Amino acid sequence: MDATGRVRLDAIARFLQDIAIDDVQETGWGTPEHLWFVRRIRVEVRTPLLEDRELELVTWCSGLAAIAAGRRWSVSGDRGGRVEVDSVWIHLGPDQRPARIESFGLYAEATGGRPVSTRLELPLPSADVRRTAWPLRATDVDLHGHVNNAVHWQAIEDVLRSRQFDASSPLVAELDYRDPIDLADPLELAVQECTEGLALGFCVGSGVRAAARLCAMRGRG
């Protein structure tokens, strides 16, 4: 939680990640035969988790493609907080190369025939946007040698605070993971205001490894 008692986005991301790992390990779709890397995620904080001290998470497969699957989560707090999340994950084989998904069993049944797309949707930051160095730590790296997905959300939380973005109100946060970030990479954040709210780029040299967008939620309950 942050200083106000709000459950932070990076904490939510770790909860989502842990329950996803538990799920695939239980069904036989986990390591070492199967690897899953998140491609895109959309977090809708419909009722911020402000006073909640216990969370219930439900997850299911929301769509299917040849080498990718969608995963949904519904997060409910004991004091009325609610977060809905959708994501797309790339399926890799034990050789860490994209592998076709076959005989997906209960996961395929849960999709109801819905497809998913691995196409990235968020715009990249303009070349002239000022960048700020974001230092990485040894504890940010996961089992595969890359910066853990939740670390991106730590950077986003820092930006929210510095830009005085009201995270205690309903919001939508999206992340496109384009390429992995390694511990030795000189990571910089490019932050700019957009019509929807804030746009972020996770930049290494001239490349953008990930893109994010945050905006206030309107018209959803």
Can you give a write-up of this model?
- The protein has three helices and nine strands, in the order αββββαβαββββ.
- With 221 residues, the chain is of the alpha+beta class.
- The chain has a single domain (9-216), classed as Thiol Ester Dehydrase, Chain A, CATH 3.10.129.10.
- It has a nine-stranded antiparallel beta sheet.
- Strand 7 (187-193) and strand 8 (197-204) form a beta hairpin.
- Helix 1 runs antiparallel to helix 3.
- The radius of gyration is 17 Å and the shape is globular.
Q: SSE layout and pairings?
A:
Layout: H1 9-27, E1 35-47, E2 55-64, E3 68-77, E4 82-92, H2 105-111, E5 131-133, H3 149-162, E6 171-177, E7 187-193, E8 197-204, E9 207-216
Antiparallel strand pairs: 1-4, 1-6, 2-3, 3-4, 5-7, 6-9, 7-8, 8-9
Helix pairs in contact: 1-3
